[in-house]
Structures are given as structure tokens and as C-alpha cells.
Design a protein that fits this description.
7-stranded mixed beta sheet; 7 strands; alpha/beta; Rossmann fold; about 30% strand
Length: about 170
């Protein structure tokens, strides 16, 4: 944390984007940072880092968004990617409730590598025909303070998720 010269504080946040493959992590980052969406799916290999500055009460938060490859059997997220994380966005595909388990497992890894990191779970693809009666109870397995719904395709809930993380980082 430092001063921005106008009396406000500057915060830096390493935000790790985590979840199973094809849950929409990259799409959420692209929607948030560049205001674009593409139906084309390209798997992330390793990690891609984007940056976005978000105004919060009392200052600004520069978010370094670590878009990390999806974790699946045979491909795990290295602990070194999680160390030093200020926040984690645990993303699952609301149309595939089985992806909640991966998000929950990754949340536990974050707690081990970066115990003070703020965690937020996001049910992405909320624009699809979702049976929320199945999804919401299953999402209770995510041991996080807040769960939100989003759609990278329509943009609904995307800015809210990142704004929530920015406020939590600035006001722990």
C-alpha cells in the first residue's frame, strides 16, 4: 500500500483465477479487462497475466489477474502460482455442477499457499438455462464468504465480482 498523491491509497493485488477447464476464467478476465467476449474456446497453457486498476473508496487497487490453466486429472496448478496471492476467484460452470468440486479443492490449495488471500466463488455461465436448485446447494461446498453469479457472455455480474475483490483487498 502507498499513497497516490491525492490522499488516496494505492493497493496492489495478485488475483488468481482458478477452476476446472472451460469454466470461463479467461472469458471473465477478457470481459473485465477488455469488455469483449468470444465464443471460441482456447485452453490457457500455464498462466497469463493481465492488469486492471479499480477505484475503491479511499483509493485504487491495481489488480494483477493471473489467469491459470484449468485444473483437471493429470494437470494440477503449481503451488508457486498460488504463493503471494492477495485474492482468488474460484470459478465454476453453473451448467456443470461437477466443476464445483474442482473449485473447492483449489480454494483449499490457496488457503495453504496464501492463507490471508480473500476468496470469492463465481457461478459463471449464469445466462444459460441453469437448475439453480441443484447448483446452489452443491456450491455450499465452497468454503468462501461470498458466492456470486456471472455471465462472461452478457457481462452480468462480472464487474461486481472483481469490485467485491478489490474492496476486500483495500479494506481487509
Amino acid at each position: 500500500m502507498s499513497s497516490d498523491g491525492s490522499g488516496g491509497s494505492l493497493f496492489r493485488a495478485k488475483v488468481v483465477m482458478l477452476g476446472a477447464p472451460a469454466v470461463g476464467k479467461t472469458s471473465l478476465v477478457r470481459r473485465f479487462v477488455h469488455s469483449v467476449f468470444s465464443d471460441e474456446h482456447h485452453s490457457t497453457l500455464g498462466v497469463k497475466v493481465d492488469r486492471k486498476t479499480v477505484a475503491v473508496p479511499g483509493g485504487v487497487v491495481t489488480m494483477l489477474l493471473w489467469d491459470i490453466h484449468g485444473e483437471t486429472e493429470g494437470l494440477s496448478v503449481p503451488e508457486s502460482y498460488l504463493r503471494g496471492a492477495t485474492a482468488a476467484l474460484l470459478v465454476f460452470d453453473a451448467s456443470r455442477p461437477e466443476t464445483i468440486e474442482t473449485a473447492a479443492s483449489l480454494g483449499q490449495k490457496v488457503r495453504q499457499a496464501s492463507p490471508k488471500a480473500v476468496q470469492l466463488a463465481v457461478a459463471n455461465k449464469a445466462d444459460l438455462d441453469i437448475d439453480w436448485a441443484l447448483v446452489d446447494p452443491a456450491a455450499q461446498a465452497l468454503d468462501v464468504g461470498m458466492r456470486l453469479r456471472s455471465s462472461a457472455k452478457t457481462g452480468d455480474g462480472v464487474a461486481d465480482a472483481f469490485a467485491h475483490l478489490a474492496r476486500a483487498v483495500a479494506n481487509p
